Amino acid sequence: MxxxxxxxxxxxxxxxxxxxxxxxxxxxxxxxxxxxxDVSIVVTxxxxxxxxxxxxxxxxxxxxxGTRDWSKYAAxxxxxxEGRGGDFFGEAGTPVQLWAPNxxxxxxxxxxxxxxxxxxxxxxxxxxxxxFPIMPYLNYGQMAREDIEAIVAYIRTLPPIxxxxxxxxxxxxxxxxxxxxxxxxxxxxxxPKSDKVAYGEYMTNxxxxxxxHTPQDSGQPQPGMAFAGGFEFPLKNGKRIRTANxxxxxxxxxxxxxxxxFVDKFKAFDGAPHRAMSDAEQGENTYMPWYVYAEMxxxxxxxxxxxxxxxxxxxxxxxxxx
Length: 322
Known about the structure:
Number of helices: 13
Strand content: 5-15%
Radius of gyration: 22 Å
Structural class: mainly alpha
Helix content: 25-40%
Order of helices and strands: HHHEEHHHHEHHHEEEEHHH
Oligomer: single chain
Largest sheet: 3 strands, antiparallel
Shape: globular
């Protein structure tokens, strides 16, 4: 019996040692991305204009890192909070508690351009911490380098705001898993607008449409369900909402929509008043930032539509408000 007890203790010690070695390896080997570049972005009026367009109306940087007014439909950005951070991403009682960080010059003033570029495109902060992939750096890492530089140049011009968001809280083993996700950027050029489908695919990636419109299983996109909807968001009042199927399936997706109908769906919010919602109406709210995407150029929205028409249709009837 004593020999068996010694054997068990020895085996347990071996397991603990191997587990410790595995954890140490994850901390030493990951995140596996190159150091931040020593680069200084050359700022031009054209670059700032492009960056303002992408950061405000396509990639959602300012909206996600601002404060949204959930008392109004589609939770528009509260003026004066652009880039301050603080919006909560997560759900009470779950292992994932995230708050958008401040990206105004108050927080990023000491960061180099190379450090911001690495964070945006490879998911690694200045201090080497891996960013949680709710920040769609895997998408941004596939954008053109000049577009990323334009976004960074514009972000530098945001009015500085004194604010520090709460630190994220991730239950074990998520801190280890998150370290393995960042990867080096793989920039690609912006396709010509004349190639409508290719350009639409580029803009769809820049807007991270698939991230919200693809259902997930344990944090991973479900195979064969790209753009099929069903991703679930908790609303601020405890209710839930699911994203729509935007594949070209005629019955459960947008297969019967015309290009004009698709563009008009967004443009209906361009300049529209922000409708106030009572507490009782909050279950009818949405995470879809309609007022942000409404400012996209109609040509870009049409290109996104053209690309979505090429993705495989998926039969997936989504109950938007379960």
